[in-house]
């Protein structure tokens, strides 16, 4: 028999537990304590199982369940199911959508349905990917075709152009080479011709000088004296000497007064004298230096004709000799510019045949002035 | 001793044209338990426990190389093994935890052929199942994986929780490079 007090407390505790209140701990009485202790143990176990279940529901899947019969077995099963779902979800998250959950009723159906939907979406996505891959491959093929076309076209266009341009350039270069060669040949021919002409003229001068000299020495030279202006002879000679000066580019300044008096002279011989003096002045003058030729009549009854250069000048010791036959100035500056050595001797003879005088005024380094006189026509 | 092969099980389609390849769970348990009982009478319970575990390993290796060798990772292995269990009405497998770096796994098997609703007083009741799962995992990882039942519960639907682990080996085969069974005893 249990006491009324124990009976009352046990019934109250059981009713509370039936309502879900497991926080029960009845102080054990002195009598019938075994029943109260059993009720307390039941309440304690129920509290522990609830707490373990709450941990599981709260997401702690590692909770360890103690002994507890079918109720704890049920919690273990739920725990195993939840762990398996987590593992399956991880498999799906890793890309394996082929998993399936068994024996979990509606939960399994929902979970498997979700995986199935994901697989279908994945399949659709892969199908789209395949389509995109196919499109991409087609585009790449088209792009390759375009590249090939451009390559072929550019090659076919460039190759002939390269050939055309190359041959044209070759022809231009050959033509330029021909022109250069032609110019070189022309210049060489011109130089040769110039050399021939110069040599011929020099030979001619020599022959003429020798003939003149022979005539002079034999007394067979005669003058045809006519009145005239010696300035005309100077101008004529200067015009002739322009061609003679050629590339020496010496400027011959004519200094003839407009009112020059007339003199009587043999035109050809006087031209010979002036040519001789002017050509010597050009010959012994550096390019660019000025040459002056003209006349004055400051001395009564005669005019003085002069040809002045600004060249090397003539050494004093040689000046008395330069009108001698075959006399030539020996200075180094005059090397390579030798004439026949007869021009000044012939000029001296011609001037003297005109009753004139010829001389030179020169200082080394300051140039030379050749002068000769002719009597005025009025006096003769 | 000649290695056991799947062909040794015979052609059930030709050999059982009327009855087919299936039998009942009871007959399977009858065969297993009677064999176990006879062996225990001859050899004692401990050697039989080892023998059943060894037999399970041989069966697991055979099943692995016959049906599961294409699994490329643990996910696909569990998927294929679960499918194999379901098709052959063997059990329901739930992988709970897997740590391949530490080679520790926890999984449960319910509705097992050998254990569900059987008397739970026999400590060697799951030896064959332990060996079978060990044979599967050892073949998959190329190293020995021990499987032990750590919990069991339920009366109507008995559930066994297993832990599997592998001790480090000196010459470890690559995790997913599966080897053919080296010693499948006949």
Helix-strand layout with pairing:
The complex is a heterodimer of chains A (380) and B (186).
Chain A: H1 4-18, H2 33-57, H3 69-93, H4 105-218, E1 225-228, H5 230-245, E2 251-255, E3 263-266, H6 267-283, E4 290-296, E5 302-308, H7 343-353, E6 358-363, E7 367-375
Parallel strand pairs in A: 2-4
Antiparallel strand pairs in A: 1-3, 4-5, 5-7, 6-7
Helix pairs in contact in A: 1-2, 2-3, 5-6, 6-7
Chain B: H1 12-15, H2 25-43, H3 45-68, H4 74-87, E1 92-99, E2 104-110, H5 127-141, E3 146-153, E4 159-165
Antiparallel strand pairs in B: 1-2, 2-4, 3-4
Any key phrases for this structure?
heterodimer, A: 380 residues, alpha+beta, five-stranded mixed β-sheet, 7 strands, rod-shaped, B: 186 residues, 41% helix, disordered C terminus
| Unreliable stretches of chain A | none
Mean pLDDT of chain A: 83
Poorly predicted segments of chain B = 170-186
Content-based structural category of chain B: alpha+beta
Oligomeric nature of the chains? heterodimer
Find the count of extended strands of chain A (DSSP E, 2+ residues).
Answer: 7
Strand order of the largest sheet of chain B: 1-2-4-3
Strand content of chain A: 5-15%
User: Termini distance of chain B?
Assistant: 6 Å
Count all strands of chain B and give the number.
Answer: 4
Which descriptor suits the 3D outline of chain B?
globular
Count up the helices of chain A.
Answer: 7
Global geometry of chain A: rod-shaped
Q: Would you kindly provide a written description of the structure presented here, covering whatever features stand out?
A:
The mean pLDDT of chain A is 83. By secondary structure, chain A is of the alpha+beta class. Chain A has 7 helices and 7 strands. In chain A, a hairpin with a 3-residue loop joins strand 6 (358-363) and strand 7. Helix content of chain A is 59%, strand content 11%. Chain A has helices at residues 4-18, 33-57, 69-93, 105-218, 230-245, 267-283, 343-353; strands at 225-228, 251-255, 263-266, 290-296, 302-308, 358-363, 367-375. The termini of chain A are far apart. In chain A, 22% of the residues are buried. Chain B is an alpha+beta fold. Helices cover 41% and strands 16% of the residues of chain B. Mean pLDDT of chain B is 83; it is low at 170-186. Chain B has 5 helices and 4 strands. In chain B, strand 3 and strand 4 (159-165) form a beta hairpin. The longest helix of chain B has 24 residues, at 45-68. The chains are: A alpha+beta (380), B alpha+beta (186). The A-B interface holds A 70, 72-73, 76-77, 80-81, 83-84, 87-88, 91, 94, 96, 98-100, 102-103 and B 73, 75-76, 78-79, 82, 86, 92, 94-98, 106, 108, 110-111, 151, 153-155, 159, 161.
């Amino acid at each position: 028999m249990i006491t009324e007090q124990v009976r009352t407390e046990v019934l109250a505790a059981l009713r509370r537990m039936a309502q879900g209140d497991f926080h029960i701990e009845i102080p054990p009485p002195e009598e019938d304590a075994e029943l109260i202790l059993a009720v307390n143990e039941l309440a304690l176990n129920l509290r522990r199982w609830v707490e373990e279940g709450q941990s599981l529901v709260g997401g702690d899947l590692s909770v360890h369940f103690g002994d507890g019969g079918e109720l704890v077995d049920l919690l273990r099963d739920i725990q195993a199911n939840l762990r398996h779902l987590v593992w399956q979800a991880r498999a799906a998250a890793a890309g394996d959508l082929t998993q399936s959950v068994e024996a979990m009723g509606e939960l399994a159906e929902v979970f498997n349905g979700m995986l199935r939907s994901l697989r279908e979406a994945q399949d659709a996505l892969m199908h789209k990917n395949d389509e995109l891959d196919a499109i991409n491959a087609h585009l790449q093929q088209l792009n390759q075709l375009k590249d090939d076309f451009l390559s072929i076209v550019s090659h076919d266009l460039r190759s002939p152009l390269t050939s055309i341009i190359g041959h044209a350039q070759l022809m231009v270069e050959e033509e330029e080479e021909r022109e250069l060669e032609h110019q070189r040949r022309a210049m060489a021919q011109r130089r040769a011709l110039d050399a021939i002409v110069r040599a011929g003229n020099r030979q001619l001068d020599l022959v003429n000088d020798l003939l003149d000299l022979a005539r002079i020495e034999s007394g067979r030279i005669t003058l045809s004296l006519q009145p005239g202006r010696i300035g005309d002879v100077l101008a004529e000679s200067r015009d002739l000497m322009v061609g003679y000066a050629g590339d020496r580019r010496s400027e011959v300044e004519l200094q003839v007064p407009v009112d020059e008096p007339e003199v009587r002279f043999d035109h050809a011989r006087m031209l010979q004298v002036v040519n001789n003096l002017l050509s010597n002045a050009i010959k012994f003058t550096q390019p660019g230096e000025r040459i002056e030729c003209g006349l004055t009549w400051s001395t009564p009854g005669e005019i003085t004709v002069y040809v002045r250069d600004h060249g090397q000048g003539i050494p004093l010791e040689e000046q008395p000799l330069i009108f001698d036959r075959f006399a030539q100035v020996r200075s180094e500056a005059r090397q390579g510019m030798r004439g026949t050595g007869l021009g000044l001797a012939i000029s001296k003879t011609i001037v003297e045949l005109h009753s004139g005088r010829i001389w030179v005024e020169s200082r080394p380094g300051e140039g030379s002035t050749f002068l000769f006189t002719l009597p005025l026509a009025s006096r003769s | 001793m000649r290695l056991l092969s799947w062909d040794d099980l015979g052609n059930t389609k030709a050999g059982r044209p009327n009855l087919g390849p299936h039998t009942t769970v009871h007959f399977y348990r009858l065969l297993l338990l009677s064999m176990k009982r006879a062996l225990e009478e001859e050899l004692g319970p401990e050697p039989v426990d080892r023998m059943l575990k060894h037999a399970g390993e041989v069966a697991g290796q055979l099943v692995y190389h016959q049906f599961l060798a294409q699994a490329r990772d643990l996910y696909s292995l569990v998927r294929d093994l679960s499918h194999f269990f379901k098709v052959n009405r063997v059990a329901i497998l739930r992988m709970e935890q897997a740590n391949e770096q530490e080679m520790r796994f926890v999984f449960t098997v319910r509705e097992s052929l050998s254990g569900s609703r059987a008397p739970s007083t026999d400590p060697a009741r799951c030896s064959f199942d332990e060996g079978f799962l060990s044979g599967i995992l050892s073949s998959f990882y190329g190293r020995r994986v021990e499987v032990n039942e750590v919990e069991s519960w339920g009366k109507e639907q008995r559930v066994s929780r297993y832990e599997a682990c592998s001790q480090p080996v000196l010459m470890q085969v690559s995790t997913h490079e599966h080897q053919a069974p080296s010693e499948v005893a006949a």
